[in-house]
Amino acid sequence: MINFFMLILIYSGVYALMAIGQNCITGSTGMLSLCHAGFFCIGSYATAIVCKVFGLSFWLSLPVAAIAAGFVGFLIGVPTLRLKGDYLCIATLGLGEIIRNIATNINPVGINSIPRASLFGYQFASRNKMAFIFLIWAFVIIFYILFQQLAHSRLGRAMTAIREDEVAAQSNGINVTKYKISSFVLGAAIGGIAGCFQTAYTLTVSPSSYTFMVSVMVLCTVVLGGMGNAKAVILGAFIIQFISYFQQLTGLTNVIPPQANQMIFGLILVVMMIWRPQGLLGRDKYRYGDPRTWRQKIAESFGRKKGGER
Amino acid sequence: MVTLTLYLQYIVNGLTLGAIYSLIALGYTMVYGILKFINFAHGDILMVGAFVGLIVYEALLGTSTSGAWMLIAFFIAMIASMAFCAVLGMFIERVAYKPLRNANRLAPLLSAIGVSFILSNGAAWMFGTQSRRFPYPFDNTPLTFLGISITPHQILILVVSVAMMLVLAFFVNKTRMGKAMRATSLDQPTSQLMGINVNRVISLTFAIGSALAAVGGILAAFDFRVYPSMGTMTGLKAFVAAVIGGIGSIPGAMLGGILLGILEAVGAPLLHIPNGLRDTVAFAVLIIVLLFRPEGILGKNEREKV
Amino acid sequence: MKLLTTDHLTREFGGVIAVNDVSFNVEAGLVTGLIGPNGAGKTTLFNQITGVDRPTSGTITFDGMDITGFPAWKVSRLGIARTFQNIRLYKELTVVENVMMGLHFKVGSDPFHGRFLQAIKSYVFAQRENRMVYEKALEWLRFFDLEAHAQDFARSLPYGKQRELEIARALAADPKLLFLDEPAAGMNPAETAHLMEVVDKIRSLGVTVVLIEHDMKLVMNICDQITVLNFGTKIAEGTPQAIKHDKAVIEAYLGKEED
């Protein structure tokens, strides 16, 4: 059971990375894209090819995966991002499936026995889950900080403006097309990095693991946590992975079929939209321009912990 | 001469395929016309329709092999499935979309994706992922006619779908409720002021759209078998048909379906598209249509008012 | 000095001519009113100039530069700001955040856009930049007496304040020319009176104002120049006094309003 718990930690790390990317696209910029499985797939394949075919290090494959996925994101984004909400959703769904279809047609089996990642001579083997937890979560924290900084920067503000009202954003001098594409490419790149870690852990890639379901799970993660709130998204990743491995964790594999989890994901989307569209955690009160000093912030967070009303 | 008959054959095949797409596309287009959102779960409703039809048909048939009874049982199954899906459609609208009518644009779309997931996985849970055959209720030996063969199944598709579309056209153009529906799709607040019960119109739209999808699902099931994810691809193609015809336009959906069916039946062998890439090509067509002609053939170009 | 001129501007929507051969001038430093009955093409003209929409033919010159067909964001960066007829605030953001968005191209640069070093600096010190923008936005709120609402959501403001906030957001970009699309629509007399003060304040900043308005009292009071459109065509131009007595205008428009 502890084994499955560690597995959950690893996969929630991978999904947290993907969700940070999806959050950048959907949560911050308000573009409903459904092809994160595609970016995930490209990242995984990039790592597999760099490590196996070229025999290079895992660490080199990390930027390659990000750039490859980001580039594909760019290719997809330039034509499709001018589409409005629901059309964008369908078009990206199609593109995600096209990526998987092409991968299946080239090689339906995928790539196996990919060399392990290593750091200072230490080899990350799949059975040593603890090492992977540290590795992946280190990167989750790094990307969390990077994207948090991004959200607070000028780019992040522009993305929020676009989400709220495109026409108004234009008239505020925000080049909507440029920012939409930037946001999409960044989201795609981090999806690629998630794929990279997935490959490093499983050491195989197969087209069948990048289905539409993955995209919906990532979307669900973002919606559950709270769109536009990076902390919440990571919480969402935990919950989604917990649901995903619920049967294995409780030993009820024979009682509850795997479809039940996916029904729950569907249910989460519906229920969250109706009762809590802002997600479990909701939005930060001061997202931009926090007038408080860090002392006040600390004092306030302590105040809340004690249960006092400020 | 031989190639001409061959192409006529493709066109006949395309026509029947297209008729199915049209039936399903109508549901997308009617809902879009009124609520301005894409009912993502529509494809899964057709899958539910096919399953319900199959189950009722098998139950009614029992061990009987009488030809006439098979046909009657089939039609009863179809009507039962239509009724079931109509109720299901109304139920989904009431529970998952109605509370979101004034929410931001992404909300109903996300909710619809959720519903789609619930339906397809629920079906997989109940019926398993194995695909099932929907037996023909008649002897399906093709009839040859001027060198073109047409199966009784294809005739059934054409007859049923033409009948459905005529009924729908009559309903939308001639009846009070149909007029209310058109008024609602033109301007919701105003039609509300004119005393139209918009909620009822929307419910009815979902009911009709879902019932048509059920028919489409059953008609498609003979060739494509019945399985929980059957709605995804067929639903998407029907959506493309709705877009080609101009989403929101009822005659457009009929036209778009037929056009897409013929395009698929003629285009695939003509361009020698390998089987494995067929879906890829279908998606590519979808994206190209969305990018270059999002308003379709009969649709109006809608601009956001500033 | 002419700050903005449109030269034979025409916009057709599938056979319907919304703006027909309009040559329209805006003098720097003045408040220009654009009036005309509903559907006369006033907002369409605004949309052409501010780049929300492209003209079918004709040219637009702003500050000596041909800006015909420029996208809205570019036009806005050149110094033309606007508000919208049906208020377009970022409703789910706070009041101060709305004004911060208006400052977008005034402060800082961001990763990937702008000069490399500057962009990196701007990213690393995002918090500091954010604070700077925040302070600046607060100044604008102070100017409009909206400071007390700084942390409220824009959607929770009363209607009149929402209009003012939209003006504040537009002004934050430090424009040379400000377009106001029916700023007094839906306002009560007290709010309208306050709006007049606001327009006066804006004028005192040296910003040229063009406004579409149906409230004749307001127009006649604050405008230095008035242009009248009817059925997409310009039918008169001049001082409020001249417009009041213009035959064509009275026929087309004021005649119906006479009480």
The CATH topology of chain A is what? Answer: ABC transporter involved in vitamin B12 uptake, BtuC
The average pLDDT value of chain A, as a whole number, equals 84
Instruction: Please tell me how large the radius of gyration of chain A is.
Output: 20 Å
Order of helices and strands of chain B: HHHHEEHHHHHHH
Q: Which fold name is given in CATH as the topology of chain B?
A: ABC transporter involved in vitamin B12 uptake, BtuC
The Cα radius of gyration of chain B reads 19 Å
Number of helices of chain B: 11
Write the layout of secondary structure elements.
The complex is a heterotrimer of chains A (310), B (306) and C (259).
Chain A lengths: L1 H27 L7 H18 L4 H23 L4 H22 L11 E2 L2 E2 L5 H24 L1 H11 L1 H6 L4 H27 L9 H14 L4 H15 L1 H5 L7 H18 L18 H12 L5
Antiparallel strand pairs in A: 1-2
Chain B lengths: L1 H34 L6 H20 L5 H31 L8 H22 L15 E3 L2 E3 L1 H23 L1 H11 L1 H6 L4 H27 L5 H16 L4 H21 L7 H15 L14
Antiparallel strand pairs in B: 1-2
Chain C lengths: L1 E12 L2 E12 L3 E5 L6 H8 L7 E6 L2 E2 L5 H7 L1 E3 L12 H8 L13 H9 L1 H18 L15 H14 L4 E5 L7 H16 L3 E5 L3 H7 L2 E6 L2 E6 L1 H5 L2 H11 L2
Helix pairs in contact in C: 3-5, 3-6, 5-6
Provide structural commentary.
The complex is a heterotrimer of chains A (310), B (306) and C (259). Chain A has 310 residues and is mainly alpha-helical. Chain A has a single domain, classed as ABC transporter involved in vitamin B12 uptake, BtuC (Orthogonal Bundle). Helix content of chain A is 72%, strand content 1%. Chain A contains 13 helices and two strands, in the order ααααββααααααααα. Chain A is globular and about 55 Å long. Chain A starts with a helix and ends in a 5-residue tail after the last helix. Chain B is an all-alpha fold. Chain B has one domain: ABC transporter involved in vitamin B12 uptake, BtuC. In chain B, helix 1 packs across helix 9 and helix 5 runs antiparallel to helix 8. Chain B starts with a helix and ends in a 14-residue tail after the last helix. The model of chain B has no long low-confidence stretch (mean pLDDT 85). The radius of gyration of chain C is 19 Å and the shape is globular. Chain C starts with a strand and ends with a helix. Chain C has a six-stranded mixed beta sheet with strand order 6-7-8-3-9-10, with helices on both faces. Chain C has a four-stranded antiparallel beta sheet with strand order 2-1-4-5, covered by helices on one side. Chains in contact: A-B, A-C, B-C. At the A-B interface, helix 4, helix 9 and helix 12 of A face helix 4, helix 9 and helix 11 of B.
